Amino acid sequence: METRKLAVGSIITALYAIGVILLAPISFFLFQVRVADALIPLSILFGMPAVWGVTLGNVVANVYGGLGPVDIVGGSIANFLAAYVGWRIGSMRFAGSQFLATVAQNLIISSIVGFYLAVLFEVPLEAGFVSVLLGSIISMNILGYLLVQAIQKSGLQSKP
């Protein structure tokens, strides 16, 4: 069982890093649609292996991205917190809990990343928040939620 968790975490790490790097033109800077963030909601199904996967994948991607230590540390903290909180909310299993989990994940990412991007790019905090929020609606609340639903229907998720 531990091997499976390690494999899941490793696959998510690799997919996240590759997804960000391959789509670098839309993954970095103030206005971004980080398509790889669709993997963050996988924490709802896979728990801590997915939490660590999107966190470590973010470290790799943000080292590549060039915004420096603030982005490497800040983005990784944001991914960890968002994935962890989403996992906890999603595991409550009430009607709408999975979608609510993706909304919470989006708000965490948008708040943390939006804040430091606003500082780095010297724009109002609201601009930083909204620029990340809009892209995250596409990646997490639409693509990520649909990915969770598809995996759940396939029966590939691990037992919590």
Describe this structure in words.
By secondary structure, the protein is mostly helical. It has a single domain, classed as Orthogonal Bundle (Arp2/3 complex 21 kDa subunit ARPC3), CATH 1.10.1760. 78% of the residues lie in helices and 0% in strands. The protein has helices at residues 2-22, 24-27, 43-46, 48-65, 69-90, 97-121, 125-154. Helix 5 (69-90) packs antiparallel against helix 6 (97-121) and helix 6 (97-121) runs antiparallel to helix 7. The protein is globular and about 45 Å long. The mean pLDDT is 95.
How far the N terminus sits from the C terminus, by CA atoms, comes to 12 Å
Q: Please outline the major beta sheet.
A: none
User: Any idea how many domains?
Assistant: 1
Uncertain segments are: none
Helix/strand order: HHHHHHH
**DSSP strand count:** 0
- Helix % is over 70%
Q: Remind me, CATH topology?
A: Arp2/3 complex 21 kDa subunit ARPC3
Shape designation: globular
State mean pLDDT (0 to 100 scale). 95
Percent of residues in beta strands?
A: under 5%
Structural class: mainly alpha
> What is the highest CATH level, the class?
Mainly Alpha
CATH architecture: Orthogonal Bundle
